[in-house]
Design brief:
- The complex is a heterodimer of chains A (885) and B (115).
- With 885 residues, chain A is an alpha/beta fold.
- Chain A contains 25 helices and 41 strands.
- In chain A, helix 11 packs across helix 12 and helix 11 packs across helix 13.
- In chain A, 47% of the residues are buried.
- Chain B has a single domain, classed as Rieske [2Fe-2S] iron-sulphur domain (Rieske Iron-sulfur Protein).
- Chain B has a 6-stranded antiparallel β-sheet, with no helix packed on it. Chain B has a 3-stranded antiparallel β-sheet with strand order 5-6-7, with no helix packed on it.
- The two termini of chain B are 22 Å apart.
- The chains are: A alpha/beta (885), B mainly beta (115).
- At the A-B interface, helix 12, helix 16 and helix 17 of A face strand 1, strand 2, strand 5 and strand 6 of B.
């Protein structure tokens, strides 16, 4: 079915494609001065073009006449196999009934064949002899089953021998259904997609079915030999006999078919024969009209036909073609998605909605269930060049076969059979040529992450997709049905994927599935923050150029209408601090609450306080102070954190400055989008395995990078040997001593909602080099990371090789600048907890829930397990006195 | 914005919740009005909005949220509410909007009529 994919750069059509997209001038031959549009062909391409035209107001611009050879409205040809299999009835596949044409003022000449087109007189002549003039003609004549050269297939009058049928329209299907009731043995000639559907459908009616396929394996257009073999096993398991690599040379029978003869001499009895050995574009009309026809009707990028008689490749004025009957840039398509794209371009051009619209060919992705087996195929089915990567997984006993073809790091082909859960991910990678995971196997399997093990399609409606925000599949699908067609739009509407983010790709898959091809991309998905329509690099350039040093200045200068956006302020505040350091004009309202009060808000509105404890090393004095503070402020829980510090939970907002004063320790930044902590192991001082002094290096790193603002939090770890006791391999920045004074520096690791081992950026010779390299990486990330993009996404997005070039070889010549900018940022460090004597804004530390006795978190006296709910803690002091009235 | 900067007559007779200086621009502050917790937001044009102080999703403190001219975002789970109406923009139940205005340098709040 799928046309051969050849990229012939130039064919007859391309010569004229640079011409402006002028639509023929209105001849005002229609009513009310409207142009007359005639569409020949009322199949999927013709009718889709009409729908697209009407959507763009074409109903007001054109008097539309449509000729349809079949005496029906417009139906979904793809679903004929369901009708054959008895899973659907004819009414179920109707897309536009006859009334639809009337309602839209379209003159449908139903069951009328067009015999001739005169492109000079600009009229079509139909089988009744009537002529219909046009200003614009669209040929959507589709294709017919190919009749392979077989002896005896036609009778003397040229008609097919009774019992031999194609599988193309409603009439064919009705004929097959009728025959299936009376007959017992069917041979299907052609084991492509349509042939297998026909075989399965007939078999469902109890027939004994044999498929004869002359190429070496089934569905050879989409599948490689190995996949074809797996599919064959599945088809044979259904009880269908399959012969491949052998041509059907003759059809036998007097008056009615009684069998076929194969090229190797075998004879198969049959009382019906279905021809599904490809399709032939219907080009007769175009050919006779003098239009250029090669394998099909040649069109340019605006679907305009070429007039051969002019001889110089000029366009035939006002004549267009669309669908299976056209050849575009040397390619003939037989799948529905390209037809739809063509119809949309054609409608843009004809209505002038976008006079410059162009069709540039389709990357075809076939997704179907053939004979009960799921198949998805896109691009190449096999490697073509020696350097192409080919990853194959085959489990024939289960009928599963998966393969991907990768060229220069991009996906150029994929085949999935039996297990197609990865289709949407692969299709995205294929369509958008996205960077691929280094472990290619991840393209086919989810390794080490449980959340996506079920594909979007198999997921039950009530299955929870986003665990953070409790969003079910049904809610997501509902949002799509309510009109959101972009992943971002759905995420905004449902908050799915807006918690820890680990379900984002599953959410995209469900949206994609529910949008059913209608997926749109919200351009704001690429903005640094939603309220300012710029990507990060453009935003940074504009901020620098216009010297915007405050959040409101950015909104005023760069947001549409100067409008403020609450969801954007936090990201902008972070960015401006990174860019301007001391020059930044701090507007407190632009900060998230955590950054206004330098503590992490908890579920009940209390806060957690984590003092800095560099490298996870503490002293009796620090511990004593922490213990005293915990008792004095009735701390709900004292918890040793994953980052090797001590967390005091359940602190009231109004107590924060007093807690900091009593602690006398700097902030540990456990709340910010910033460098958080450096974990270390015990290194060489005590550990008998340690190869390097990780403790000292970790403390030095924390001292240098403390509090640095960044696109998302940064966690670091330093370990004294590869035993990895402080988990450096899964940190944003991880440093590992490997002996002889050498240190490995890993970046992009994670052990949160995603688990990822960091990539080895470099092995360096000294702690000083570690500091320099890590500094450069951090500054580079601060500048190029998107808002809330953790390093585990940033590093793969940039690519390790590029990072190595930039940060090790100075390929971009920016290292000196990175060093200087980092130095400035380090110099601008102030302990935020020093900001306690005077509130920065009135009421900075006033409770936001004045009537709620906080904390509500359970009290765990002395940190003991099994705490009790708190006694009432009055916070009424925070309530303005006059407000009690 | 729900109220003009100065002396909206309908809030005269509302409850005095403190001097305007206590309310920072583009921030929320929580006050108690007739036994009810209300978050008062000061817009950059000087006008005020007032909403119930508690997020309808899981009780988050809306006065600690981030705001713009139109909405406030709850700090706990980033649910969004319109400042003028209390209408939820992220699928949670709506909350009640009250009236707030400045009179002679004092912030006055009047609770919405209970339906």
């Amino acid at each position: 079915m799928a046309a051969e994919v050849g990229q012939r750069a130039v064919d007859g059509a391309t010569a004229g494609t640079t011409a402006t997209a002028d639509v023929p001038a209105p001849r005002r031959g229609g009513t009310g001065g409207r142009r007359r549009l005639v569409v020949v062909g009322n199949g999927m391409a013709g009718a889709r073009t009409l729908e697209e035209l009407l959507e763009r107001g074409g109903g007001e611009m054109f008097d539309i006449t449509v000729f349809g050879e079949e005496p029906y409205g417009n139906y979904n040809r793809i679903l004929l196999s369901h009708v054959l299999a008895g899973e659907d009835d004819e009414s179920g596949i109707v897309m536009n009934p006859l009334e639809w044409y009337a309602e839209n003022g379209i003159d449908l000449r139903c069951g009328v064949r067009v015999d001739r087109v005169d492109v000079h007189a600009r009229e079509v002549v139909d089988e009744t002899g009537a002529t219909t003039p046009y200003d614009v003609l669209v040929l959507a004549t589709g294709s017919s089953p190919r009749i392979p050269p077989m002896e005896g297939v036609r009778r003397e009058d040229g008609s097919l021998l009774p019992g031999v049928t194609g599988f193309r329209g409603i009439d064919d299907t009705r004929g097959m259904l009728a025959a299936a009731r009376e007959h017992e043995r069917a041979v299907v000639v052609g084991g492509g997609l349509l042939g297998l559907e026909a075989a399965r459908g007939l078999q469902a009616h109890g027939l004994d079915v044999t498929v004869v396929h002359s190429p070496a394996h089934l569905m050879n257009q989409q599948l490689d030999a190995a996949a074809g073999a797996v599919l064959r096993g599945q088809i044979e398991d259904l009880g269908i006999t399959v012969h491949t690599g052998v041509r059907t040379s003759a059809v036998t029978g007097e008056g009615r078919v009684d069998g076929v003869v194969l090229a190797d001499g075998r004879r198969l009895d049959a009382d019906m024969v279905v021809l599904t050995a490809g399709i032939t574009p219907n080009t007769q009309l175009a050919l006779e009209a003098g239009l250029t026809v090669e394998r099909a009707v040649v069109v340019d990028d605006q679907m305009r036909c070429v007039d051969t008689r002019v001889g110089d490749g000029s366009m035939a004025e006002g004549v267009f073609a669309v669908g299976e009957c056209v050849q575009h840039r040397g390619v003939v398509y037989g799948l529905v998605a390209p037809l739809w794209e063509q119809a949309s371009v054609l409608a843009d051009v004809l209505t002038g909605a976008d006079p410059t619209a162009e069709y540039h060919g389709s990357r075809t992705c076939t997704k179907l269930k053939v004979a009960g087996v799921d198949v998805a195929a896109m691009g190449l089915s096999e490697p073509e060049r020696a350097e192409d990567e080919f990853v194959v997984f085959s489990e024939s006993s289960r009928g599963v076969y998966q393969s991907v073809v990768i060229r220069e790091g991009r996906l150029v082909g994929a085949t999935l059979l039996g297990d197609v859960r990865k289709t949407s991910t692969l299709q995205q990678a294929f369509d958008r040529q996205l960077p691929l995971p280094e472990e290619r196997l991840r393209l086919l399997f989810d390794l080490g992450s449980g959340s996506e093990e079920q594909g979007a399609a198999e997921l039950a409606d009530d299955a929870q997709v986003c665990n953070c925000n409790g969003v079910s599949k049904a809610t997501i699908v509902g949002a799509v049905e309510a009109g959101s067609t972009s992943v971002k739009g759905v995420m905004d509407a449902t908050r799915a994927g807006k918690g820890c983010g680990s379900c984002k790709s599953l959410v995209s898959q469900i949206v994609e599935l529910a949008a059913d091809g209608g997926l749109t991309e919200d351009p704001s998905a690429h903005y640094y923050v939603p309220g300012v329509p710029l990507r990060k690099d453009a935003l940074v350039a504009a901020i620098r150029e216009q010297h915007l040093t405050s959040v409101s200045a950015v909104f005023a200068a760069l947001a549409p209408g100067g409008e403020h956006d609450a969801k954007s302020t936090m990201g902008l505040t972070s960015l401006l601090r990174t860019l301007w350091n001391e020059e930044f004009v701090d507007e407190r309202g632009g900060r998230f609450i955590n950054d206004r009060v330098h503590a992490n808000i908890q579920r009940d509105g209390t806060f957690s306080v984590v003092p800095q404890m560099k490298g996870g090393v503490t002293t009796p004095d620090q511990l004593r102070k922490i213990a005293d503070v915990a008792e004095k402020y009735d701390v709900g829980m004292i918890k040793v954190t994953g980052g090797q510090r001590i967390d005091l939970l359940g602190i009231k907002k109004e107590d924060l400055p007093k807690v900091w004063a009593d602690l006398g320790m700097p902030s540990g930044y456990a709340y910010g989008k910033s460098m958080r902590t450096v974990k270390t192991c015990v290194g060489t001082d005590f550990c008998r395995f340690g190869l390097g002094d990780s403790t000292t290096l970790g403390i030095d790193m924390e001292t240098r990078f403390q509090g640095l603002e960044s696109p998302a939090k940064i966690k670091m770890g330093v370990v004294g040997c590869p035993r990895n006791c402080a988990e450096a391999y899964v940190k944003d920045v991880g440093v590992v001593a490997v002996g002889n004074g050498r240190w490995e520096v890993y970046v992009g690791g994670a052990a949160g909602a995603s688990v990822r081992k960091g990539d080895l950026l470099a092995t360096v010779e000294s702690p000083e080099e570690v500091m320099t390299l890590v500094g450069r990486f951090v500054q580079f990330y601060r500048q190029w990371g998107n808002w809330l993009e953790r390093t585990y996404d940033f590093v793969p997005r940039m690519g390790l090789e590029r990072l190595q070039k930039v940060l090790l070889e100075d390929s971009d010549g920016i290292l000196a600048q990175l060093d200087a900018e980092l130095e400035e940022a380090v110099g601008a460090y102030r302990d935020p907890w020093a900001e306690r004597a005077e509130p920065r804004t009135p009421g900075q530390f006033r409770t936001a829930l004045p009537l709620v006795p906080l904390p509500l978190v359970p009290q765990r006296p002395g940190g003991a397990p099994g705490g009790v709910l708190p006694q009432t803690h009055s916070s009424s002091a925070a309530v303005p006195a006059g407000a009690q009235a | 914005m729900s109220a003009a900067a100065e002396a909206a007559p309908e809030v005269l007779g509302g409850v005095d919740v403190g001097p305007l200086e206590d309310f920072a621009v583009l921030e929320g502050r929580a006050v108690v009005v007739q036994g009810r917790q209300v978050a008062v937001f000061r817009h950059r044009d000087g006008s005020l909005s007032a909403l119930d102080a508690v997020c309808s999703h899981s009780g988050g403190p809306l006065a600690d949220g981030q705001m713009d001219d139109r909405v406030v975002v709850c700090p706990l789970h980033l649910n969004v509410f319109e400042l003028a109406t209390g209408k939820a923009c992220s699928g949670q139940p709506d909350i009640t909007a009250h009236t707030a205005a400045v009179h002679e340098g004092r912030v006055l709040v009047r609770l919405a009529e209970e339906r």
